[in-house]
What does this fold into?
Amino acid sequence: MTAAPPMSTHTLSELAKTIRSKNAGVNKITFDIIFRDRENYERVKRSRVLTRESVAALYRIPPERISDFVEYDPAYAIKFTIYRLTPSGSAGDGDIFGAQQYAPLLDLAVPA
Amino acid sequence: MQTLRIICPNGHLGFAPLRTESFQLGVAAAPDYIAADSGSDDVGPVPLGSDTSTSPLAWQRHDLEQILLASRKLGVPMIIGSAGDTGSNSRVDLYVGIIKELAAQHGLTKFRLGWFYSEVDKAYLRRRMQEGETVQGLDGYADLVGSELDATDRIVAMAGVHPYVELLRRGADVIIGGRSSDAALFAAAALRHGFPADTAYYLGKVLECASFCAEPYGGKETVLGIVSHDDVKVTAMLPSQRCTVASVAGHAMYERSNPYEELFAGGKLDMTDCRYEQVDERTTRVTGSRFVPSERIRVKLEGAGKVGERFVGMCGIRDPYTISHVDEVIDWARTQVRARFGDSGYELHYKVYGRDGVMGDLEPLRDQPGHELFILVQGVAPTREMAEELTLTGVRQMFYARLPDVKGTAGSVSFPLDEVLPASAAYRWTLNHTLVVDDGLELFPLHTADVGE
It folds into this structure.
């Protein structure tokens, strides 16, 4: 049996206001994690739970597939963008709008 | 003129109808312009390639009617960009026709209708390439080569402000645009009235998706933008929505990989030094945006090419042993397809819902499939007959998959329908490129006509 996480650990979905994915042009999908306040934003930034490397590991893709990784202070947001393997709407694409690719981010554990 | 007021009732006109309550509140706020873009490359390459709309005619007509009647009543211009989802010539003609019909139907007094096209002739592009021009690929696309141009059915160029400014200068009261940068139609109105590009382009950037710059989330609601010589204010018109610092700043990053800049034909909007302030409960003020003109005008090109005719089929799996061997079931079906059709000359795609149908290679939980699976099969081939047989083989042979230890020997899958269904032909984005032009009007022929009595 594994030990329960410390009480102060939260999931990303508990801390963020918005977690979403969407096409950015026809060959990329961009992910936005937006916080309601500076405190939660800074906490997640400090935790290093979301970095170019951690995101690549989570989605099991090489880091080169991440075209941009931005900590966007004006909106208390962290955003990253990945290349698609084939452009949106090609036969076999399961998400033409790229709108349902964010789910693995929801349960990321963020330490206090 | 100290300020200019523009309302935007819909971020993608036609895709879902505008909401009339907030639109009427926006109209009551005495705008100088009503503007909305009607296109997106989000809808995939099929509409552009097949020259169709993904939006139903009834919804397109609904919004055009609402906006036209309001604009004529107020006596202010309306601007619609990227007609009919793609901005192809047939979509511009469709909207121009709807405007003329509505004018007759409602007995509207005379107004000037302006429109422009944005399809690019393949022969023109081939000539430019032969002259040594590089058509540069965007976002991982290689520079354009002749074979990709050959594989393309239709190309549209994305207009900047230029055709809109010129049509306004020619006195257009109603403008129907071909494919356009959505922000350009708003920026053009502000530029036409002498406002600086720094605020004009930001006005367009913040208004283009209507209420997506407001909170709480709710699409298709009207927002009001007010541009001055040194700021932009944006206000939600629906009483329950607000434009907050967070929602407005957040909108800058929506659908863009870089939240600090956006490229247009003729320059880029730099939002690095933007400052956001809440000025009243539903209004946010933005200062510090900058427009940086480019040395040469680079126009974005979108092109789609047909891959083949397409059918779809579907089946389900409930046996846990079969679920754990679903890839072998698919392999069996693929093998039967190869035996019939060979190794190439078609596409066969399997989506396994309940495992990784939504996320494909990005799915971290791929090794934890659910207790039942749904499998969508798509077959793409040069003819409808072949696509149908290909897809039927790819689905039905799953029923006969030979798994060594399966208990159920009467059929490996369930069929909700024992048939395959015709789908839209398959297309792909062949062009996602940019081309240098000498003049922002070069690819966009303009037309005007007086309409009404």
Summary: The first strand of chain A starts at residue 10 and ends at 11. Chain A has four helices and six strands. The mean pLDDT of chain A is 93.
